[in-house]
Amino acid sequence: MANKGQQSKKTEQLKKYTDDPQGQPLTTRQGLKVNDTNNSLKAGPRGSTLLEDFLLREKITSFDHERIPERIVHARGSGAHGYFELYEGQEAYTKAGIFNDTARKTPVFARFSTVAGSKGSPDLARDVRGFAVKFYTEEGTWDLVGNNMPIFFIQDAMKFPDLIHSVKPEPNNEIPQAASAHDTFYDFVSLTPETLHNHIWAMSDRAIPRSLRMMEGFGIHTYRLINAQGESHFVKFHWKPILGVHSVTWDEAVKINGADADFHRRDLWEAIEAGQYPEWELGFQIVPEADEHKYEFDLLDPTKLIPEEMVPVTPVGKMTLNRNPENFFAETEQVAFLPGNIIPGIDFSNDPLLQGRLFSYRDTQLSRLGSPNFHQIPINQPLVDPHNNQRDGHMQTRIPKGRTAYFPNTLGGGCPHLSKIAEGAFSSYEERIDAKKIRTRSESFVDFFSQPALFYRSLAPWEKQHVTDAYSFELGKCKQDHIKGRMLWMIEQIDADLAQKVADNLGMDIPKSIEKPINQAIGADSTVDDFQPGKAKNYLDTSPALSQSNTKFDSIATRQIAVLVADGFSMHDFKAMKKALEHGKAMVKLIGPHGGTVKCDTDMEHQVDAPIHTTESVLFDAVYVPGGKKSIATLMKNGKYIKFLNEALKHCKAIAADNEGEDLLEKTYVRDFKEDKAICINTAPDEFVNAVARHRNWERMEKTGAIPV
Ligand code: HDD
Q1: Computed from CA positions of residues 144, 147, 151, 155, in that sequence, does the dihedral angle turn out positive or negative?
Q2: Domain total for the chain?
Q3: Minimum-distance ligand 1 atom for the alpha carbon of 111
Q4: 645-664 pLDDT, tens per residue?
Q5: Residue nearest to atom 11 of ligand 1 (CA)
Q6: Residue 557 sits in the same domain as residue 515
Q7: Phi, psi at residue 166, to the nearest 5°?
Q8: Domain that holds residue 682
Q9: Catalytic: which of 74, 197, 233, 264?
Q10: Could you report the per-residue pLDDT of 262-304, keeping only the tens digit for each?
Q11: pTM to 2 decimals?
Q12: Which residue in 211, 222, 615, 689 could disulfide with 610, CB within 3.0 to 4.6 Å?
């Protein structure tokens, strides 16, 4: 039944399993009250420890087994609870209750992740981000397990182990951690041209998001929506963040990893704690069945996107994340996503990558969570109580009643019984298949260069520069010239100018030809070599939706603003700026010369949020320096403030100063950028607010190369 209280239904379910130690005595796992958990039982005060000590054994045994295997990919992640609400019924396309009933508030749990790094790796690795959402619907659980990029590296699940083995730390020395910049990855990429599209996205700013709350999400594969009449439409799922899509620079990413390895995790947690709930709109890109073969790319090929200019994305609802987990392990670590978890009204397509995923995820949970009963873990439990004849296994926590565990039966009254489709039972879409069984790649998949080229063409000049820098960094870290050469040849197929710039940075020439790798990549007897590199198709000059320069720039909500102060800072300046920033829901943080408090020029005490020696410029979106003679004189004596401002300048951030604050800027390279539109000296606070909302003044980038930080 429709009801707005659904989110609380999942929260209530979780509450039943939540332990709260407040006011409770410490007990053993058997409930025995404990008198001493600090000393083991010994034969005399200095004597050896007794085997009899069940308290010691229980505590140590439990500790010894605390760890479970980390995810083979996406090990590093952060999650949150929330809900999904529909804008308008989508009955024309799907019978899924979640897309029919606008009165519902469907509970969700979302987990965001990097791919290659281990569980403890830093958040700002250059990497794809996982974007997985579990919808606890009334008809069963639906998992939409996507990424923050709309395409994938490979076309067939058969190649997934090869892809991941190449990008993970090399097996002989387990180096490098959470980084793709090494020979084995580029050996694979350069031999597997289907990777180039996702790869160029990974070289773009999408791979170093400013926040998990400021990235898009994509279901990637083409799925099917099935309506009540049994009709099918193809669909691609898109998540669009309300705050827009924003990224940091590579230099910042590297420094953030040192200054706060948990930057993204902390940002998500703190935004939710502050009541600034992250939100995304879910959108459908619908293609009628009749149009399946209309495009110059194959809808089943997960390395291709459908440009939004060709098929628009229609927003259908919104996800809001409004509650942090109570316990990281129990919820974020144990949550198990399965692309195979679907509900009536949604179905799979024949995308061969998706088809392989349908096998892999259930399989991996068995070794990760240790039992086929992983669906009984509270975070994985559906809202609907499951009843079936599957039995036993490690960690069975339910007590299935009755004599029968088979179907059909009479002894159990025929229960659990089957349901008709009209009663909400799932039935697979009856797709007509008439084909030979064959191990091959469809010829319609063999165009590896058109879409990476479309992506690159669609970028703004500053984004193109970032891509050039990223290729130059990554390949610069590779040792083998033959691998770098092959990569340069591949990049040249995307864009000759890009390839030349990267080649110059590598100090290499682009090879005239390479031994064609396509056969190896597809199959020894393959004939697809004949198509390569193929004439790049140009069905669209540019797709503006692909560039972050066309994202939203209308909010400063949750932006972290550093205010550099010492005793004697101007309350007059600060008050006006703080009011404007907090009106826009930015987070204003006082950076002082020490912890505790600083006094403004009206003798009021202000709590310091971070002493300068504990923080870094890269952790903030913008910097403000209020006036105050005494304050500025103190700040000028500490080189860290100069570095702080120079870095903010280099990273194209908004900087503001009032009155004597300008004297501090004179000590920095900001003095050469006074005409810059995001440098606000003695301007109205709103000008600074507008500059912060623009995220960065990327045009500045052309001139910041000489700044030595
Ligand atoms: Fe995968 C985890 C996303 C292809 C095998 N994958 C995993 C997660 C995300 C994705 C977001 C983490 C979920 C979480 O937070 O727990 N994977 C993708 C996307 C893909 C993709 C968007 C392509 C479009 N994956 C893919 C293939 C295979 C896998 C082709 C295997 C054939 N993925 C796995 C896995 C993981 C996983 C090994 C590791 C942990 C887990 O499943 O639960 O089964």
Answers
A1: negative
A2: 3
A3: 15
A4: 999 999 999 999 999 999 99
A5: 130
A6: no
A7: -75, -30
A8: 553-703
A9: 74
A10: 999 999 999 999 999 999 999 999 999 999 999 999 999 999 9
A11: 0.97
A12: 615
